[in-house]
Design goal:
The structure is a single chain. The protein is of the alpha+beta class. The protein has one domain (5-131): Nucleoside Triphosphate Pyrophosphohydrolase. Helices cover 19% and strands 45% of the residues. It has three helices and seven strands. It has helices at 45-57, 111-114, 123-131, and strands at 5-14, 17-23, 32-33, 36-38, 60-76, 79-94, 103-109. Strands 1, 2, 3, 4, 5, 6 and 7 form a seven-stranded mixed β-sheet that branches. It starts with a strand and ends in a 6-residue tail after the last helix.
Amino acid sequence: MSKPVRAVSAAIYHEGRFLLVRRGRAPALGLYAFPGGRVEAGETLEEAVRREVMEETSATIDGVRHLVDLDLASETATGTVEFVLSVHAASFSGGTIQAGDDADAVAWFSLDDMAHLPLAGSVLKIARDIASGRTDR
């Protein structure tokens, strides 16, 4: 079995809303998720989070902190790809939000909004934990 692909995402909470992207490619095609993607060779997880957020949303972030690692699998035409997704919390520090890279839409959503969206995996649970302060260590 091949080594899992390292990936990152950022749960960016700002003024009571989370920044989400609608995925334009697999994995999670068409689903809303925290911005993120694969870690490139030589990058730290934090560097990857900052780069991916910038590429997908044009946002800059601060206060990046690791929350949880999730083991995920994605079906492709050639088989199953295993991912280790490192989810981070971050604060919005600036930028004009616009969809880029493999995101086909980006917007700010409240928890109530998110409850009615097609979301990837544990996005809503993580967002609820952040909004309620349950992720502080």
